[in-house]
Design goal:
The protein is of the alpha/beta class. Strand 6, helix 5 and strand 7 form a beta-alpha-beta unit. The radius of gyration is 16 Å and the shape is globular.
Length: about 190
């Protein structure tokens, strides 16, 4: 699995999803790295690789559905759902709107999510955790159990730590460390790997 994620990092750099330089984040903080997740998850090879890696993490967890807050989670959840179907173990996908739509069905959650489902929340990046927490709150309010939270990148600015402190099984694929390094998650082991 580590090799697959290291390869994903190289593809993210190649596609311009991981950028190095001087950036101002949405929070106003300065950073020497930036992750533009959609450049990876909307790339044909990137979508497939992300789907495969996340599917392998979810395999055996009993997850019924995968999704998260729009926009970042949409291509990830779609990729995982497609890969799961190709493996003969379909996992449905859903998306969570920031607020319920004001017309039609007036739902906040779109897609295939039934009350009582075991759910994985996905997103492209976690900084302070706001988007992920909104998605968690929405699916828990819909009567679902969040059994895994996966992001492509953890910026290590408090969001991942908060999820772990709140008891969620949080797994980032890639870490952006304070020293400027970009590394794969050494804690992820594939079945049979030592």
């Amino acid at each position: 699995m580590k090799k697959a994620i290291d390869s994903l990092i190289q593809l993210a750099i190649k596609t311009g999803a991981i950028k190095f330089g001087e950036f101002t984040l949405a929070s106003g903080a300065k950073s020497n790295r930036y992750f533009e997740g959609k450049l990876l998850t909307l790339h044909p090879e990137g979508a497939n690789r992300v789907g495969e890696v996340i599917y392998s993490i979810l395999e055996g967890t009993g997850v019924d559905a995968v999704g998260g807050l729009i926009i970042g989670a949409i291509p990830i959840a779609t990729a995982v759902s497609m890969v799961s179907y190709q493996h003969g173990k379909p996992i449905s996908a859903f998306l969570v709107r920031e607020t319920p739509k004001e017309h039609g069905t007036q739902r906040q959650i779109e897609g295939h999510l039934e009350p009582g489902s075991r759910v994985a929340i996905v997103d492209d990046v976690i900084t302070r955790g706001g988007s992920v927490i909104k998605a968690i709150q929405a699916v828990e309010s819909a009567g679902c159990k969040v059994v895994k939270v996966i992001t492509i990148v953890d910026r290590h600015e408090g969001g991942g730590e908060k999820l772990l402190a709140d008891g969620y099984d949080f797994v980032p694929l890639i870490h952006f460390h304070a020293d400027g390094s970009v590394v794969s998650n050494d804690a992820i082991k594939a079945k049979g790997e030592t």
